[in-house]
Design a protein that fits this description.
The chain is built from eleven helices and twelve strands. β4, α4 and β5 form a beta-alpha-beta unit. The mean pLDDT is about 95.
Length: about 300
């Protein structure tokens, strides 16, 4: 009997072809809701998912499941412990999106520093003089703090080398280099003009940036979160922005996605919002699909996957 792979959301065709060429059957799902996946994946031996939650209940509805492949780096939405208890392997694609996320981080940094979105919008609103009261800022000479100096944080630092900035970072598992100085966490919040969040989503980092950290920041400093929305205390961020405790924010991720249209964060002109697009490039989508597909094939073939989540 041919093993089947459930793909609830469309992925790059190259990934599907790898699975088909290996002799497995694709189940193209109709959506990412739990009930849909449970129904459509009942006979699946593998599933290739995005950021949707994947719980023990869903796993139990797929009795033949051998591997859960995450089409991305973060796997916080997967109940990894439940998977391991059931003998199900979990894999992700940690190397596929490093450059894309790093590039997007630099884009958001420049976008918020130069106030690109609101100044661009002013043209469409017929307010050419808007720029006179809404100046941008130079990056040159500023201190940029990188909170989380793993693969992505290090790639961001490399891309910022030519901007004449001071780079500092916090990460208990990483070391600095000629361009980046490792500092204490409080020092990073106190000294940075821009703080780039690249932390993994886990219990230790959930809601780890809130009122205390905002109070430590300079009142013109900007927080940029490209990691996970759960890392921030959003209500306290809104309050810090309302009271002018910090200078602004650029956010690509949120606790609730999609972000509601009437969310308080949409009301600030010193905030840049993007809809979780850090890895949303043609090349990255292809790399993620390829890496995920290869690991699915490896597991279903009885071999060891390359990017096993332990």
């Amino acid at each position: 009997m041919t093993k089947k792979v459930l793909i609830p959301d469309a992925v790059s065709a190259i990934g599907e072809q790898i699975i088909i060429d290996a002799g497995y059957e694709i189940i193209n799902g109709s959506g990412r809701q739990a009930n849909q996946m449970m129904q459509e994946g009942h006979e699946a031996s593998a599933v290739l998912i995005g950021t949707q939650p994947f719980t023990a209940e869903i796993m139990d509805a797929m009795p033949q499941l051998e591997v859960i492949a995450r089409n991305g780096v973060g796997y916080d939405a997967v109940d990894v412990e439940a998977a391991h208890e059931r003998g199900i392997k979990v894999v992700n694609t940690p190397t596929a999106l490093t450059d894309a996320v790093a590039e997007n981080t630099v884009a958001e940094l420049l976008g918020i520093a130069k106030n690109l979105y609101w100044n661009s919008k002013s043209i469409y609103d017929g307010e050419w003089k808007y720029k006179k009261a809404h100046l941008g800022r130079d990056l040159s000479g500023k201190t940029i703090g990188i909170l989380g100096f793993g693969r992505i944080g290090q790639a961001v630092a490399k891309k910022l080398r030519g901007f004449n900035v001071r780079l500092i970072a916090v990460d208990p598992k990483a070391q600095g280099n000629d361009d980046v100085s490792m500092v204490e966490r409080d020092q990073l919040f106190e000294e940075s003009d821009y703080i780039l969040v690249h932390l993994p989503a886990m219990p230790a980092t959930q809601h780890s940036i809130g009122a205390r950290e905002f109070q430590m920041m300079k009142n013109d400093a900007v927080l940029i979160n490209m990691a996970r929305g759960s890392i921030l205390v959003e209500d306290e961020l809104v309050e810090a922005l309302q009271q002018g405790i910090i200078g602004g924010a650029a956010l690509d991720v949120f606790e609730e996605e999609p972000l509601p249209k009437d969310h308080p964060l949409t009301q600030f002109e010193n905030v840049l919002l993007t809809p979780h697009i850090a890895s949303n490039t043609v090349e990255t989508k292809q790399r993620m699909a390829v890496d995920a597909a290869h690991d699915i094939v490896a597991v279903l073939s009885g071999n060891q996957p390359k990017f096993l989540v332990k």
